[in-house]
Design goal:
Rossmann fold, alpha/beta, globular, binds thymidine-5'-phosphate, five-stranded parallel sheet, single chain
């Protein structure tokens, strides 16, 4: 039996084109007959949407690093329990724009919070639900930021912060080669979409023959 890839996450630095590519892959999978739900973190369910406003809002959002980490985790727990698990339980496919790796990259590598501690909180929040495949859209942080029109609280961070986040994502990919596919996000929308489809098919084949 073919290995079912039913839970896919998109990760990467700012401006890598995750949201667009997530929508593209959803379309492609729907055309193949999958019942696809797209969602994102933070901000998947009503509670998460309010957390997202606090987390990414403007100047009034004077959020400490620890509060930021805990709110990302609160959002993740809501998203897993209220959005992702129910759709997977119905036999559907879920594409999630950011997931646990973002907390490791941003709060761990970026902010400098202990990586083991972030991982422990991630385990607590996801309750054993790890993606079948993670697509890491890789782009130089300076180039990614230059692509962004408006700036969120995170995007206003110094370039050094974004370089640590980027290096963090690559470290996560090296440590999880079976789950994470690194996609070169430099190119046209169609070129990147094609790389993603190729990575999806390769992952499918590798696991089907494993
Ligand atoms: P985006 O998904 O629209 O790019 O925005 C989400 C922002 O939140 C982005 O700057 C990354 C950040 N983030 C974290 O810092 N930690 C997390 O765990 C998640 C999910 C997102």
């Amino acid at each position: 039996m073919a290995y079912p890839i039913r839970f896919i996450t998109f990760e990467g630095p700012e401006g890598a084109g995750k949201s667009t590519q997530c929508a593209r892959l959803a379309e492609w999978l729907r055309a193949r007959g999958d019942d696809v739900l797209t969602t994102r973190q933070p901000g998947g369910d009503p509670v998460g949407k309010r957390l997202r406003e606090i987390l990414l809002g403007g100047a009034d959002g004077d959020v400490t690093d620890r509060a930021e980490l805990l709110m990302m985790m609160a959002d993740r727990s809501q998203s897993v329990a209220k959005i992702i698990r129910p759709h997977l339980a119905k036999g559907g496919t879920v594409l999630c724009d950011r997931y646990a790796d973002s907390s490791l990259a941003y709060q761990g590598y970026g902010r400098g919070i202990d990586l083991e501690f972030v991982s422990t909180l991630n385990e607590f929040a996801v309750e054993g639900l790890w993606p079948d495949l993670t697509l890491l859209l890789d782009i130089d942080p300076a180039e990614g930021l230059a692509r962004q029109m408006a700036r969120t609280r995170m995007e206003e961070e110094a370039i050094d912060f974004h370089r640590r986040v980027h290096a963090g994502f690559l470290a996560i990919a090296r440590q999880n080669p079976d789950r994470v596919a690194v996609i070169d996000a430099d190119g046209s929308l169609e070129e990147v979409a094609e790389r993603i489809r190729i990575a999806y098919e390769a992952h499918h084949r590798n696991h089907a023959s494993a």
